[in-house]
């Protein structure tokens, strides 16, 4: 699936069960990530339902613990 096709599907609120973004084009990976956030999570839900981590700075145990914690 191409970059443009994925963006268009996200705008239509048609999401795949899993996305794996990778590659040397950092701009495209960031654009896909932003499209997923913008189209997949309402603005008022982002504070409680969205977490973004840098695995170089955050221990995986902390991320797993956050994922297992129910939002309030």
From TrEMBL:
<dbReference type="GO" id="GO:0003887">
    <property type="term" value="F:DNA-directed DNA polymerase activity"/>
</dbReference>
<dbReference type="GO" id="GO:0009360">
    <property type="term" value="C:DNA polymerase III complex"/>
</dbReference>
<dbReference type="InterPro" id="IPR005790">
    <property type="entry name" value="DNA_polIII_delta"/>
</dbReference>
<dbReference type="GO" id="GO:0006261">
    <property type="term" value="P:DNA-templated DNA replication"/>
</dbReference>
<dbReference type="GO" id="GO:0003677">
    <property type="term" value="F:DNA binding"/>
</dbReference>
<dbReference type="InterPro" id="IPR027417">
    <property type="entry name" value="P-loop_NTPase"/>
</dbReference>
<keyword id="KW-0239">DNA-directed DNA polymerase</keyword>
<feature type="domain" description="DNA polymerase III delta N-terminal">
    <location>
        <begin position="19"/>
        <end position="72"/>
    </location>
</feature>
<keyword id="KW-0235">DNA replication</keyword>
<keyword id="KW-0548">Nucleotidyltransferase</keyword>
<protein>
    <submittedName>
        <fullName>DNA polymerase III delta subunit</fullName>
    </submittedName>
</protein>
<dbReference type="InterPro" id="IPR010372">
    <property type="entry name" value="DNA_pol3_delta_N"/>
</dbReference>
<keyword id="KW-0808">Transferase</keyword>
<dbReference type="Pfam" id="PF06144">
    <property type="entry name" value="DNA_pol3_delta"/>
</dbReference>
């Amino acid at each position: 699936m191409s970059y443009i096709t994925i963006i268009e599907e996200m705008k239509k609120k048609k999401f795949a069960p899993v996305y794996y973004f990778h590659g040397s084009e950092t701009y495209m990976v960031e654009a896909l990530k932003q499209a997923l956030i913008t189209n997949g999570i309402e603005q008022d839900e982002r504070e409680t339902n969205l977490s973004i981590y840098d695995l170089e700075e955050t221990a995986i145990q902390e991320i797993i613990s956050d994922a297992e914690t129910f939002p309030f």
